[in-house]
């Protein structure tokens, strides 16, 4: 995230937040999701925190606004900072799992995205990698193959066992080589 990045309404692409309506998620307003700070020289990062959820939890992410073909990549890398339970799910939504009302192809038992839980060692910034080959579908929804030709975004999902949460993300990028996991960054942290 750099100066000039904007938050656009979901459906046109951009950042979004979600929760089950039973707890408290901060920020309450989407425009407060991007905050000052980040690892190294980064000036901005996305960050959300919360607790008290009782149905499924909360999360946030970014919609690309269209399907992106990432088949030439092995995975993604990003910086993450997690406080609270220091664990979160990293999800890769594809058009086959996204509800039709949000631009996807799914009409029933939707949002069962391919995901993996990532723990962090402490509350400092970590370099995280996710190999697409390591992502399972949870299994509560309609089974669909992981079609990396129609990735619609990425998101952080917090389940009830990962509360309380406070997770920041920055520097999301595709990777030709990825080994799933998080390791502390060695440079100066904000």
Can you describe this structure?
The chain is an all-beta fold and 190 residues long. It has strands at 14-19, 24-26, 34-36, 44-51, 58-68, 75-84, 87-92, 114-119, 125-131, 151-158, 165-175, 181-184. The strands form 2 sheets. Strands 2, 3, 4, 6, 9, 11 and 12 form a 7-stranded antiparallel sheet that branches. A 5-stranded antiparallel sheet has the order 1-5-10-7-8, with no helix packed on it. A hairpin with a 7-residue loop joins strand 3 and strand 4 (44-51).
Percent strand equals 35-45%
Which ranges are low-confidence, i.e. pLDDT below 50, for 5 or more consecutive residues? 1-11
First-residue to last-residue Cα separation: 15 Å
Q: Given the structure, what is the number of helices?
A: 0
Topology as a string of helices (H) and strands (E): EEEEEEEEEEEE
Radius of gyration: 16 Å
Please bin the fraction of helical residues. Answer: under 10%
Largest sheet: 7 strands, antiparallel
The structure class reads mainly beta
Total DSSP E strands: 12
Could you write a compact summary of the structure shown?
The chain is mainly β.
Which helices and strands, and how do they pair?
Blueprint: E1 14-19, E2 24-26, E3 34-36, E4 44-51, E5 58-68, E6 75-84, E7 87-92, E8 114-119, E9 125-131, E10 151-158, E11 165-175, E12 181-184
Q: Keyphrases for this structure?
A:
7-stranded antiparallel sheet; 190 residues; 5-stranded antiparallel sheet; disordered N terminus; mainly beta
């Amino acid at each position: 995230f750099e100066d000039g990045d904007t938050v656009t309404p979901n459906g046109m692409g951009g950042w979004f937040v979600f929760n089950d309506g039973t707890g408290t998620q901060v920020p309450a307003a989407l425009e407060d999701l991007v905050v000052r700070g980040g690892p190294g020289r980064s000036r901005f990062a996305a960050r959300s925190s919360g607790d008290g959820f009782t149905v499924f939890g909360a999360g946030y992410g970014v919609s690309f606004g269209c399907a992106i073909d990432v088949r030439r990549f092995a995975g993604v890398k990003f910086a993450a900072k997690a406080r609270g339970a220091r664990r979160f799910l990293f999800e890769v939504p594809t058009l086959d799992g996204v509800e039709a009302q949000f631009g996807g192809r799914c009409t029933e038992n939707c949002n069962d995205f391919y995901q993996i839980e990532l723990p962090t060692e402490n509350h400092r910034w970590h370099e995280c990698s996710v190999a697409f080959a390591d992502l399972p579908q949870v299994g509560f929804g309609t089974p669909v193959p992981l079609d990396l030709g129609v990735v619609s975004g990425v998101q952080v999902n917090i389940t009830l066992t990962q509360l309380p949460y406070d997770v920041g993300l920055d520097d999301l990028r595709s990777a030709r080589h990825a080994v799933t996991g998080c390791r502390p960054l060695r440079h100066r942290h904000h």
